[in-house]
Records
---
Amino acid sequence: MKKEMIVCIFLVILIIIVNILTQNYTKECVSKMHEKLNLLKEESLLKEKNEEEISNKIDNVDKIWNEYQEKLAYYIEHDELEKVETQIYAINGFIEIKNYEEIIPEIEKCIFILEHIKDKNMLNIKNIF
């Protein structure tokens, strides 16, 4: 009986540690993406738009997302990650056709989805029950 109790306690501690590590990584990813998307949003709101700078920023966002997505895919639902990728492709599409007014709502949707992913994977009472 004592051995089983020790094993159970060890497993619970291990689960909590892994959860803390994944939460911290998710927060890091979301904050970095949020920062890059806000820079893109600010650039696209300027009256004098620099098309090359906007293209560079969306390429940077896409590159960073691809790096983070590989690790996030281990523990986050793939549907959630695909939603973010879909939004990034939509933003990229509007940039390619130079429809800068439509970029802002797509960036806001992408930020909302990222925040939802972060909140959904946090260890709290609401997510347990």
---
Amino acid sequence: MAHMTPKNIFKVLILVLIITLGISFYLPTASESANWINLPPYNTLWPLWSPPLSPTNPLTGLPTPIVSSLESTRVLPVQPGLTWDPRRPYPWLLYYVPPGLVYYDPLYGINPWPPAYLKDPLTGLPAPINLSLIKGWSLLAPTATSWLTNNVPVANNTFVAAYPPSSVATTPSLTSLLTASLILGLGPILP
């Protein structure tokens, strides 16, 4: 084996550094799900599989969430939004009202989003889900058609009953809310 000069050692180190950086940039994208993406600040999952909630970006050709984060004051361009803590058996349907986001839960109805357990009890600040501890989150399938079909109409009706358009000027009418078919990408996309 030939003796390595300092110049050759430097070249090898640079090559190793470039390879290491390349791998580090690849790994985070390799762990992303084909169906869900985690959104700050809580790291709940947002559906990449839903065209109205994650339309295709014409520049990249990839589904891109219509929101970049899910703070409690986030205004949703379409409703309901959908977010999910993969430790739970079902997602939340999100709606915007002037005081902030609310969510529909099949067991507990309409409540302010995020749920209390996603906040630090002392500070009230986000307590993000550590997705690296949740085995297989990146392999989660889209929300079941049957769950959406059974829950979206009930959630929409519950939302409009709790926040009727006549009482809150920015509440949409029931006919402007996404249906299960629209969320699944099976119906026409709203303008």
---
Amino acid sequence: MNKILGYIFGSLFHFFFFLFLCIFHPIQWICYRVFGYKAHKISVDILNFFLNNCNFLLFNSLTFTNQQNLPLNQPILFVSNHQSMYDIPGLIWNLRQYHPKFISKIELTKGIPSISFNLKYGGGANIDRKDSKQAVAELIKLGRRMKENNWSALIFAEGTRAKDGQLKSFHVGGIATLLKAVPNALVVPVAIENSWKIVRYGKLPLGVGNAIRWTVLKPVDKTGKNAEEITLEAENTIREKLNQTLTSCV
């Protein structure tokens, strides 16, 4: 029965998700070209509000918890696990006051309405995974923008999506490069739960009736720690949160 609903409501979800992407593409273009960064960011925030709320077409619940008193006048490096592309709208919308910038594959800067435009002009880092020098240079440029504007960056430290929801080991490279460029950045773990269940069967049917959760966790104390130790602590903090939820559900 769930799969039947997944085909019906999943088709509706895809239709409205793509519709919003198409509607906001020219809106983004006008905001950026005519009014500049601030207007463009507002258009991106509103787009992701609608994209995130497309989850209600799948009867998914959405819970974003941030009990941390994070500063607005300091760069922040959010370090998160990654379960599906549907992690992202909730992060952009709910962390909008911190101006989160993403690290993405350069291939995504072409061909996708709204998403490609934002990746290209929104201030993030678009890296070529086959060119390590280009990737490092992009991260350094992002770090400079973070320092100059007190922006945040969000890195999916697993390096790929965990399609079964199982947390993978975190890679240190991107985190180390950004911390070298922005040594005063606050490192804040974010745990994402159950987003993978939306696409557990692929593009269709989509999973319905899931509790999608984002939890901003306590910042990592960087004192006396190198990048490897900071990355491992962020990973363990997220792992502990995911395990707590699994234990409470048993």
---
Amino acid sequence: MHKFIIGITGTLGAGKGTVVEYLVREKGFCHFSVRDFLREELENREMPVNRDTLTAIANTLRVKHGASYIIEQLFIKARECKSHSVIESIRTPGEIESLRKNDQFFLLAVDADPRVRYQRIRKRNSETDQISFRVFLENEEREMHSTNPFHQNLSACIRQADFVIMNNGSILQLNEQTETFLTKIGFQSQ
């Protein structure tokens, strides 16, 4: 069986997690999450889990082990999975460069209007989402552009995607766009 490994990148609150849920539920994908990997790392170090500590630990691990370290750890797990896999959430060009060495890898970006995304994160209500719109925009700006290869650069990641979904509509529309992406890369359900 040719196994697909799909990486997900995109902006905060754009719908990356909803795409992942669809791939897991409807297509049987295994799911590997950078956020879960980092949360576990923070918990092992008995540090609080918030957007700043998640970003800081990610940057620390990248500096110590290499720009693509986190994604490489998740890719190893994805290769071991007996099914297709999705890796959420790719945030640096170095991670993409590492993953592109594998012919079964494809990158999907998800984006949406900032106000739409802010409303979504407020409804999601996770530990990192209790922020004002101003802080939301500041966080995003910090994560969008960086010349440091160990720091997040979402705009560069989105530009490198094989397919970009603009998710300003309903979940049904998002699922339809996900199906369009799967068709484009040659994925067929078993």
